[in-house]
Design brief:
Blueprint lengths: L1 H19 L5 H12 L31 E6 L8 E5 L4 E7 L2 E8 L11 E5 L10 H9 L4 E4 L33 E6 L18 H14 L5 E6 L1 H11 L6 H6 L15 E7 L18 H19 L2 H10 L3 H9 L11 H13 L1 H13 L6 H7 L1 H4 L4 E6 L10 H11 L8 E6 L5 H4 L1 H16 L1
Parallel strand pairs: 5-6, 5-8, 8-9, 9-10, 10-11
Antiparallel strand pairs: 1-7, 2-3, 3-4, 4-6
Helix pairs in contact: 1-2, 1-9, 4-5, 8-11, 9-10
């Protein structure tokens, strides 16, 4: 019965990928299937530029909350001023209220702030990840005098994972109303989890690159950031590009009347983005953007469309199957092995802290976690980096843009469409201003944590030469 075994192992592999990395091209799954067939089986009191609302009750969720402990909280009107503070010793951690969701943030501030402050840095993680794997990057940048903000994207990490339960309001784990007339006290049951999580809401959300870019833009506005450097890994690279260009504002009328805070607008509102750094940039929200490759023949494109359709219909768009896999198949050991395959330079850096940062949000995110995985694999992939450069040359040709790539990345290889595009852009000075640069380091997909020394050296060289 080799065939059912192969199918089961492939399913496990796909689900683990969904927990830990940006969806890759089907060729990676095909090679993995072949291999299976050959085996037997802040210590600051205040977040800088952010203040608590004096009229809002804040909630602190203890990290060691035990099972079935009920906590009272007050439901609040939506406000960009609502934060929930968590003291984690060395880093300021807070939940920032955005569109009635709670977004987990970590802010690292240098011990001494000079009068000539450097640009703020925003770190954007990849699919299924969180702020935790930026640990070496945050420390290095803080020691260089940068204030660093890392956020868990909505639906991932420790941020809220909303899920619409239809008319059955009782099924919502954390029920509260949007814009209530009066604060309403309620209780919720805290599940066993060693880390605090953003409260899930009975809300319908359509995940996209532009949704997260809008979130980042609002966060920068909320923190009153004047100059910003955006850095993203894999899927987070697309979020950085969308935020830098204001692509989430979909038409010229909105661009004039409701300008993007970071990108400015076409009426003279200046851009606040001083630079963009992309670590192993992805092709889109999911791998379906490879269908835009003009080198594909009609037959090849049809085959890929069929493959994506089968995978989505049988696996990724099947919430019951995904829930079963998360609850009954995915373990810490399985996830650890998957992560080590991404750490090609130093797999020993995959420690308990890293594994937990992937494991617990997926395990305790409830229906919202399943919904996020399903949508990210099945939704429209959005614009590719190549399309964004073609659409916004007036922006991306003049911003310092740096690529840092792991030479052994199997998820978004430098030999892929995006890597080839940027290598050609650098080699032939596309845009004519020499603002795009690239470094290749000995590492895998999560290069900044796999080989932090070489990656951080490349990052600091670019910052000192091109940005500061």
């Amino acid at each position: 019965m080799i065939f059912p075994t192969v199918i089961l192992l492939l399913l496990v592999s796909l689900v683990v990928d969904a927990l830990s990395l940006q969806p890759c091209a089907f060729s990676a799954y095909r090679s993995r299937l072949s291999s299976y067939c050959n085996t037997s089986y802040c210590n600051r009191k205040d977040l800088l530029s952010v203040s608590f609302s004096e009229t809002v009750l804040a909630e602190t969720i203890p990290a060691d909350a035990s099972n079935k402990v009920e906590e009272e909280f007050v439901t609040r009107p939506e406000s960009l001023q609502d934060e929930i503070s968590i003291d984690d010793g060395n880093t300021e951690q807070r939940f920032w209220r955005w569109r009635n969701h709670e977004i987990f943030t970590e802010v690292s501030t240098p011990a001494f702030m000079s009068s000539n402050s450097k640009p703020k840095i925003i770190l954007l993680h990849g699919f299924g990840a969180s702020t935790r794997y930026w640990r070496e990057t945050m420390t290095t940048l803080k020691n260089e005098g940068f204030e660093v903000h890392a956020l868990d994207l909505l639906g991932q990490g420790r941020s809220s994972m909303p899920y619409a339960h239809g008319v059955d309001k009782k099924r919502a784990k954390f029920p509260y109303k949007l814009y209530p007339k009066q604060p309403v006290a309620t209780t919720r049951e805290v599940e066993t989890c060693p880390m605090s999580m953003g409260k899930n809401t009975n809300t319908k959300v359509y995940y996209s690159i532009n949704l997260w870019a809008n979130m980042i833009d609002d966060y920068a506005r909320h923190c009153n950031m004047d100059e910003v450097i955006l850095m993203g890994n894999s899927l987070g690279s697309l979020v950085a590009l969308s935020a830098a260009t204001g692509d989430f504002i979909e038409n010229d009328i909105d661009r004039e009347n409701m300008f993007a805070y970071l990108a400015g607008n076409n009426l003279g509102e200046r851009s606040r983005v001083k630079g963009v750094c992309l670590f192993n940039c992805a092709v889109g929200l999911n791998s379906m953007n490879i269908l835009k490759n003009t080198n594909l023949s009609v037959v090849q494109r049809s085959v890929f469309e069929w493959i994506f359709g089968v995978l989505n219909n049988l696996i990724f768009n099947n919430e019951m199957l995904l829930k079963f896999a998360l609850n009954n198949i995915v373990t810490k050991d399985l996830l650890r092995d998957a992560l080590k395959s991404l750490y090609t330079y130093n797999p020993e850096r995959v420690d308990d802290e890293l594994v937990d940062s992937f494991y617990y949000p997926a395990k305790f995110g409830g229906d919202g976690a399943i919904n996020a995985i399903r949508q990210i694999y099945c939704n429209d992939p959005g614009l590719s980096p190549m399309e964004l450069h073609a659409k916004y040359p007036e922006i991306l040709d003049i911003i310092p843009l740096h690529l840092i790539w792991g030479d052994s990345d199997v998820v978004t290889p430098i030999e892929g469409d995006v890597g080839k595009f940027y290598c050609d852009r650098v080699a032939n000075n596309r845009g004519g201003k020499g603002m795009t640069t690239i470094d290749v380091v000995n590492a895998g997909h999560l290069l900044f944590d796999d080989n932090p020394s070489d990656t951080n050296n490349a990052l600091l060289r670019w910052l000192n030469k091109k940005v500061l």
